[in-house]
Amino acid sequence: MSGMVLGLFENYWQVSILRSVGVLAAVLLPAGTFVYVFLFKMVSFMQSRLGPMEAGPFGSMQLLAEVGKFIQKEDIVPEQADRKLFKAAPYLVVGTVLLVYLAVPFGPDMWFANLEGGVFYILAVSSISSLGVLLAGWSSANKYALIGGLRAAGQLIAYELPMVLAVVGVVIQAGTMNLSGIVAAQANGEIFGFSGIGNPYFITQFVALGIFLIAVQAELGQTPFDMPIAESELVTGYITEYSGLRFLLFFIGEFASAGAFAAVAATLFMGGWAVPTAWADLDSNWFNLIGPLLMLTKMMLIGGLIFFVRFTFPRFREDQLQKLAWTVLIPIALVNILATTILKVAF
Amino acid sequence: MTAVTDRQKLAYANAQAADGRVNLEFETDEGMTLNMGPQHPATHGTLRIIVKLDGEQVISCEPVMGYMHRGYEKLTEVRTYPQVTTLINRIDWLGSFANEVPFILAAEKLMEIEAPPRAQWIRTILFEMSRIANISLFVGDMALHIGAMTAAFYAFRDREFVLNQIEGATGGRFHPNFDRIGGLKDDLPKGWLADTKAAMARIRDFCDEMETLVEGNEIFQARTRGIGVIPADIALQYGMSGANLRASGVDWDLRRDEPVGLAWNEVDWKVITHPDGDSFARFWVRLQEIREATSIIDQLCDGLPAGPIMAKVPRIIKVPEGEAWVATENPLGEMGYYVVSKGDLGPFRVKIRTASFNNVAVVPWVCRGVYVPDVVTILASLYFILGDIDR
Question: Which tens digit of pLDDT belongs to each residue from A143-169?
């Protein structure tokens, strides 16, 4: 692919700056939208209340108010804490999200890094955030934080596997690990000879999508898998000792990584930035504009699902979560891979 | 003056030493000691639970009470009888009216007067309403502790219908202070009975909603079924009462077994029990009790007798010498007052028996070997109010 974006920027440094700004926007924009639309508004309507209404029209400036509040707060480091690790942990968590977004394409030229092993890369870097969580839990010198951090680590090991196995089905069907390639495969694909709607994998890989979404829910630590936080048991788990800006970073990290996984799910299962080739010419430069918007729409759909589940269900217990992963999700994912392989060879 | 200060210092030092002993005992053995509370989201109040953990498993735990002790038993000794109701309203603050009734009944027993039937019926209606106000919050609270935040908001929303009715009749949402020796402060306002029946219909809808949203949820069942099982004999040994005891399969309800003059025997209702004795059973029994309470209130509203609401009582209430014990089936369990009178304006001594104190005492027995998340579930399902433990 060329380095040209929107036909305006040709120099390497222009494109690089644009991509750097773009990846920041890609982290913060969905995170902010998710917080406002889902955390402030959707959950409020679900719980028969209005949510923030004072700051700006319908409370739309509430985000700024919250950020301002957190910046003003004192940044406290506990006396017994391991200061360096304690301070570094939130940056590690937020940095991971940046790394995940790096491989996700938002249009024919709107990508930050077009990696050949994109899927592999995303699955690898997404686990780093759990390292940050474990660091935060250990360095806080707090028993609640420690238990929360250990739970997060256990959850990571249990749910990384079903997630990988679910994605393998998609990779087999697309025949590539490159995310742009997977998008193209879905746009150009056909279902049993019918190419009118391409082949978005949420139709043929619905089992994988289900497992992937469950694993994402666990990976993000959202209810029903929010044991690392578990506010009624562990106060707030690994973020118990954090305050001010560092708490804000964890908060951004939580919602930005929800956005990142929604973006990955949209790319892998819903056709990413593209529409089926039967509908439009995907090489058109317009898709550099429409693509990100399409992507955001699909991310909102998946994000809505994630947060709808979060605010509806109660929480599992730690051992029940492990049991679900090892005895239910992994066998189903393996069967799905087998079925996909057989069908891929047969057709 | 100095003597008092010294004594205070000594008491403080003693308390610290006792705390230290408990801590030492827990720290020196193997395992990690986790101090849940006094400030902890799961104890909704200031209950402290020292939990000794092996990984996530509880080896032993010990509730420490007294962080909210307000000395009500002593305070009643320097109040006149009508003033006491203001105090004891605040024992179980979610079902306040139910706290007043047994004390007033005890005073009436000593004075040998009886409130007129209409007053007794209205007392019963308000008593059952405070039961709904109390238990509907439990339903939301239990769901919240298991992680379902939305159900808690629904509970608060629908609890409002009952609180509005209590406010309409008594003028106070939380602390009515409406019961008087010999009757009630006022008669019911106009149109209140019709509003009440509408509110009860809303509460029944709330029960339906909670049955599908919380009770029917697979995760909720996985978290509560078979967790925190208290057999009937253990429950009786620890002196548990109320829904906790009925959830262990003991058919015991003071409303039916020890009628104290209120109108429960005039209407048709049944005592709900569950054989399992686990957290789920305790949730289920309480939810069904809300339903029973709505039907009791409906029937009482239909058959409310006419007449005065106040018996003939002297202008200045002096209770003759004697002792009386009256206990009723409060939302949290058996609540009783042992009133000793020396013929003065105020009681000589009052012993308050509250349900939560005994209900929480079983925690060390039931929490052995469970996981940390289950401690929270068990505490939530035992359902205590801190004011009811510490008084």
Answer: 888 888 888 888 888 888 888 888 888
The sign of the CA dihedral A267, A273, A275, A277 is negative
pTM beyond 0.80: yes
Measured CA to CA, the distance from residue A259 to residue A255 in angstroms comes to 6
What whole-number distance in Å separates Cα of residue A183 and Cα of residue A90? 32
Contacts of B375 (CB under 8 A, 6+ apart): A233, B36, B42, B49, B51, B58, B61, B367
* Residue B84: C-alpha distances to residues A257, B47, B338, B345, B389 (Å): 57, 26, 14, 11, 18
Q: Do A233 and B214 touch (CB under 8 A)?
A: no
Residue in A59, A81, A6 with CA at minimum distance from that of residue A290? A6
Bridge partners of B49, per DSSP, are B36, B63
Q: What one-character-per-residue DSSP string does B6-74 give?
A: HHHHHHHHHHHHHHHHHHHHHHHSSSEEEEE-SS-GGGSSS-EEEEEEETTEEEEEEEE--TT---HHH
Task: Say how far apart CA B166 and CA A251 lie, in whole Å.
Answer: 41
Token pair of A41, please?
């508004």
Q: Inter-chain contact A233–B373, Cβ cutoff 8 Å?
A: yes
* Residue A347 CB neighbours (<10 A): 7
CB nearest to A48's CB, from B146, B157, B371: B157
What DSSP state is assigned to residue B265? G
Tens digits of residue pLDDT in A258-275:
888 888 898 888 888 877
Q: Which two tokens stand for residue B256?
A: 């039916």
A10 and B CB contact within 8 Å: no
Give B-chain residues touching A48 at CB under 8 angstroms: 153-154, 157
Quickly list DSSP for A258-293: HHHHHHHHHHHHS-TT---TTTS-TTSTTHHHHHHH
B226-247 burial, b at 16+ Cβ within 10 Å, e below that, comes to ebbebebeebeebbbbbbbbbb
d(CA B103, CA A123): 66
Which residues of A are less than 8 Å from B217 in CB distance? Answer: 313-314
A residues 146-205 closer than 8 Å to B (CB)? 147
Please say whether the beta carbons of B177 and B155 come within 8 A.
no
Nearest CA in chain B to A316: B219
The whole-angstrom separation of Cα A242 and Cα A73 is 11
Query: From CA A143, how far away is CA A287, in angstroms rounded?
Result: 51
* Cβ-defined contact of B150 to A231 (cutoff 8 Å): no
Please report residues of A whose CB lies closer than 8 A to that of B220: 314
The pLDDT profile of chain B, 391 residues, written as one tens digit per residue, is 455 677 677 777 777 766 665 555 555 566 778 778 777 777 677 788 888 887 778 888 888 888 888 888 888 888 888 888 888 888 888 888 888 889 999 988 888 888 888 998 999 999 999 999 999 988 888 888 888 888 888 888 888 899 999 998 888 888 888 888 888 888 888 889 889 989 999 999 999 988 888 888 888 888 888 888 888 888 888 888 888 889 988 888 888 888 787 888 888 888 888 888 888 999 999 999 999 999 999 999 888 888 888 888 888 888 888 888 998 988 888 888 999 988 888 888 899 988 888 888 888 888 888 888 888 888 888 888 888 888 7
With helix as H, strand as E and coil as C, how does A124-145 read?
A: HHCCHHHHHHHHHHHHCCCHHH
At residue A174, what is the residue type? A
Rounded CA separation B161/B351 (Å): 34
ipTM of the complex: 0.77
